[in-house]
Design a protein that fits this description.
By secondary structure, the protein is of the alpha/beta class. The protein folds into two domains: about 160 residues, Rossmann fold, CATH 3.40.50.1970; about 170 residues, Up-down Bundle (Dehydroquinate synthase-like, alpha domain). The chain is built from 13 helices and ten strands. The protein has a six-stranded parallel β-sheet, with helices on both faces. The chain has a two-stranded antiparallel sheet with strand order 6-7. Strands 9-10 form a two-stranded antiparallel ribbon. Helix 6 packs antiparallel against helix 7, helix 6 runs parallel beside helix 10 and helix 9 crosses helix 10. The relative contact order is 0.10. Bound molecules: nicotinamide-adenine-dinucleotide. The site of nicotinamide-adenine-dinucleotide has 29 residues, from helix 2, helix 4, helix 5 and helix 6.
């Protein structure tokens, strides 16, 4: 998607109608999909902007939480959209964190074989990661994100003011992915995080993450190669999440995974130790527990069951060659274990 369809601006929630008209000039009706927390905070601002511009608005409110990212919620949403009689000219607005964004995006991908969706992320994680790239879907009892489709949003409207109401642990969760971006992008991101994410820095930080991800997704939408770089820290991160019975949030697990790879890279004489120490300083500054309390061997067993295993038993993981220089490596499980435990 084009960079000019991503707007990062304080107060953009009051101007939604303007951007909607740009990407869907014939739209007369919008379904806003949100969750109960975000509904109370921001839905009125968006629906007022739309109603003032003569757009019909209906709002679907789901219960907040990953446990509701399931087929029952999807069914209720798609019935709501059909009852609202949305046409192919109309638009769904996903207002919320990654859970809302993934589900609403999938509803847009599947209703009438695909209608437009505008993503309005309201968590840090959704601003820098889940709202970009068009991955949509929901969980099955058999596993996370097993149902899904690629469906690019027509626009992404990021209002950083909405992050002010985010609970501390949700901000930390987003920062977990932020540390990953620091290793992918390079030193300027480390410096920003070290300085602190006050107003101006937050805008700079989010913009750099968005630009980086957009650039990658525009080159490799379906994750056949380059896009896999965004999985830095995720191989181990997923295993840590599972081992903790999902009590460790995703973003924090990604930080732990990223720092474990960074440590290995230092031990193999690749990444400069200072970059690793800076990342630890950042974790301490934001109160992120980067330590891993599980045995790496049992985590590796978990990884063996991960969907990213190749048929021959090898696994792809993202390695850090240097700050701002990451590579995708395919190794055997034994090699991965040796690498991470040197
Ligand atoms: N599609 C992708 O590429 C992609 C990438 C990464 C993660 N994800 C998915 O994203 C989901 C996690 O997203 P998340 O971390 O945003 O969680 P979330 O959507 O569950 O939101 C976290 C909590 O914050 C609340 N909240 C949201 N915005 C708020 C605000 N501004 N003020 C106060 N409270 C607010 C929500 O109601 C919720 O309780 C997972 O399902 C994950 O699979 C998708």
């Amino acid at each position: 998607m084009a960079k000019n369809n991503v707007i990062i601006k304080n107060g953009v929630r009051f101007e939604v109608a303007k951007y909607l008209k740009k990407v869907a000039p014939k739209c007369t009706k919008v379904v806003i999909i949100t969750d109960n927390n975000v509904f109370m905070l921001y839905e009125a601002d968006i629906s007022a902007s739309l109603k003032n511009a003569g757009i019909n608005v209906c709002t679907f409110v789901m219960e907040a939480g990953e446990q509701h990212k399931n087929i029952q919620t999807y069914e209720a949403m798609i019935n709501f959209v059909a009852d609202a009689k949305l046409t192919r000219e109309d638009v769904i607005i996903a207002l919320g964190g990654g859970v809302v964004g993934d589900l609403a995006g999938f509803v847009a991908a599947t209703y009438m074989r695909g209608i437009k969706v505008i993503q309005m992320p309201t968590t840090l994680l959704a601003c820098i990661d889940s709202s970009i790239g068009g991955k949509t879907g929901f969980d099955l009892p058999q596993g996370k994100n097993l149902i899904g489709a690629f469906h690019q949003p027509s626009a992404i409207l990021i209002d950083l003011e909405t992050l002010k109401t985010l609970p501390k642990e949700e901000f930390q969760n987003g920062l977990g992915e932020g540390i990953k971006y620091a290793f992918l992008i390079g030193n300027e991101m480390i410096e920003l995080l070290k300085e602190g994410l006050e107003d101006g820095n937050l805008l700079d930080f989010v913009t750099r993450c968005v630009d980086y991800k957009l650039d990658i997704v525009n080159k490799d939408e379906k994750e056949s190669g380059l896009r896999k770089l965004l999985n830095l820290g995720h191989t181990l991160g997923h295993a840590i999440e599972k081992e903790s019975n999902y009590t460790i949030p995703h973003g924090l697990a990604v930080t732990k995974g990223t720092l474990c790879v960074a440590n290995a890279s230092v031990n193999y004489g690749k990444l400069q130790k200072q970059a690793y120490l800076d990342a630890i300083e950042i974790c301490k500054k934001y109160d992120l527990d980067y330590t891993i309390s599980y045995d790496i061997k049992s985590l590796i067993k978990n990884i063996q069951m991960d969907k990213k295993m190749h048929a021959d038993g090898d696994i792809s993981f993202v390695d850090i060659e240097d700050l701002g220089k990451c590579v995708i490596r395919t190794v055997s499980i034994k090699e991965l274990e040796e690498y991470l435990t040197k």
